[in-house]
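Students often ask why we bother encoding 3D structure as a string. The short answer is that it lets us treat folding as translation between two languages. Here is a chain of 332 residues written in the first language.
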Amino acid sequence: MPGGLKVSDIHSWLSALISDRKYISKNKIAFLFCLLIAIFLWLLTTLSGIFESERTINLSFENIPEGLVAAEPFPQSIIVSTTGTGLDLLMSTFRIQEDAIRVDVGQFGKSGRIEKKHLLLLLKNQVGGNEQFKLIQPDSLVLRMDSLVMNRLAVLTEGKITIPPNFGFTDDIRSNPDTIEARGPKATLGSLKSVYIQPLELDGRKDSKTAVTQRLQLPELFSVSFSDSVVSVSATIEEFTESSLKVPVQIVDLPKGVMVEVFPESVSVIFNVPLSRYHEIDPSNFSVLADFNNQTVSSNRKIRLELKYWPGEVQQARLQNEFADYIIFEKK
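And here it is in the second language, the structure alphabet:
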């Protein structure tokens, strides 16, 4: 023990104190006894007086009528003024638990209105005792409820999906499940057709092709429950590389009686392609048009080229040069 004091030393000191008549006498014991009685009588007299105190009492709700659901959060507490003897107020403090006041919503019908007299009756029945309650705030409760409906919603991703540099998607982003069942207030679900989940960042791997799955939490909507608490979002990402091919220019919609030659006859198409498909892409997969449908044909003019078609697996396909020269010949 601190300072080298031992339990045996304390025991010896107390024994000597009790046995030594110099420290404790019968008169002192009598004095202490009378003092305790006086304190008890003072407390009894004080607690017999009338007091008023203000307190916050929490509420909990149960038994919502069938077919209804809370349309907005119910009140969490009420403030009351309590009048009674000090002893009554002290005892009621011990009787009231955090969620002691339980409100049976079904007793008050679909209107959800609980008048002051009903609140006071709940307090009296559940708190008990002889104290008197005077409601301060709120004077009554209005529990706003709505019809409970069920709706099937499409699961969609929202916002930009971040993937590593030089990677791209090689198929559609999929949600599993792609639809979920939602139950909640009609005002919330009546016109709702889909629910959006925020995507997370998708990490690339050292492999050239990677299937990535993220389990994402659904958004929280008041009084709405979902048939699935989490949704898996999956996608296949693959490393891409830039490539280019010379693609012949096709002349379409020429006016009658003229012939046209376009220079150059082939133009470069630049695109990003998955590494696994790099050697499978050829010029026949692309279509570059010189469309004279809305072009005024005259000598020494240029025409805008159009990249009309490209394979679905390539990305960011574009022409290196968007214009070509052409020469007009008369048909013989």
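Translate back mentally: The first strand starts at residue 50 and ends at 62. Keep this in mind for the problem set.
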